[in-house]
# Entry
Amino acid sequence: MKKVILAYSGGLDTSCAVRWLGEQHGLEVICFSAFIGEVKDKTPLIKRAKAAGASKTYIVDLKEEFATDYILPSLWAHARYEGQYPLATALGRPLIAKHLVEVAQKEGAEFVAHGCTGKGNDQVRLEVGVRTLDPELKIIAPLRDWEFKTREEEIEYARERRIPINATRKSPYSIDKNIWGVAIEAGILEDAWVEPPEAAYVMTCSPAQAPAKPKYLVIEFVKGVPVQVNGVRKGLVEMIDYLNRVAGQYGVGRFDMIENRLVGIKSREIYEAPAAEVLLKAHEELEGFVMDREFLHYKRLLSGKYAELVYFGLWFSPLKRSLDAFFASNQDRVTGKVRIKLDRGHAICVGRESTNALYKEKLATYSKGDIFDRKAAAGFMKIWGLPYEGMYKNRIEA
Ligand code: ARG
# Structure
């Protein structure tokens, strides 16, 4: 029997897909699940996959790989799609694609399958990822192909075949979560005018419920990598988990945006990314402290492009790789500390310190000890303004 490796979440869609792939395509179904959010109990997931009809289930904890090879480069890139979304879901998909391909090759499978819908970006990220890494693999997307129109029809299909479905009441939203953040869509959120109900949020408290007293975090970076918070050493995953918890309590990292999907649809998205918000701010601040103006202004253009590439499913592309090399090239200077104040929904940088600082208090000061040569400023202005001298003489209308 030919094999298919299915990216399996344990939800209704992928549980039905297990059976459907067997029935419709006559394939042996092997499930693959990756933990890149909270590490859950493997046993129930394996049981559910088996009950749905899987011959085997792979479950791997990929948090470390996710943090080191996906989150860190995008932190260095200051990547936020359309200036806001720190790309949690978009970063997770290529990692899943990579492992799907690995399992397929190990199992000698001819097919891979996923539970993405036909309207989103995730199908693009997974399929382009898989095809880039192994063009021989055939891809099946049950949710684009099968006949179910509604959730109820899927539930009916599962009932008839005794496929276990989650007993707990389904959230009214579509939620995708990993350690870099959560995306919340659908339900009432589709009305662009309606404020998201508090209950829609899963990683953050309401800023109004946050502690009245602000909290200070000193984050220390060594060569671009955050290594300590308030004097305590933490690995990257641990650091992210910690910041999600602490900044989440202060309501930091909420986004409500209309975003432009690759497939042309504008969608209303709610994101929560407390750790990403803090780390991106802290890294941007420190880099701004140790790098020159030309570099910083030019980098901004590349950050926007990088976020687009990641969002558009082009993680495994030459330009994205080259940009990674660019962003990595100055990280050896990004060593120092940033002081972040968490205050009712805000993470504000209130201090920075580095032995590589290009900021010089003696140059900046308006007080005693100023070493800036003001006399030289006059000459600078004379030359700088030279090309424009008299250019619009008598042409400025009052
Ligand atoms: N719109 C976001 C993105 O494209 C979030 C997608 C969330 N995915 C999901 N399966 N709910 O990155």
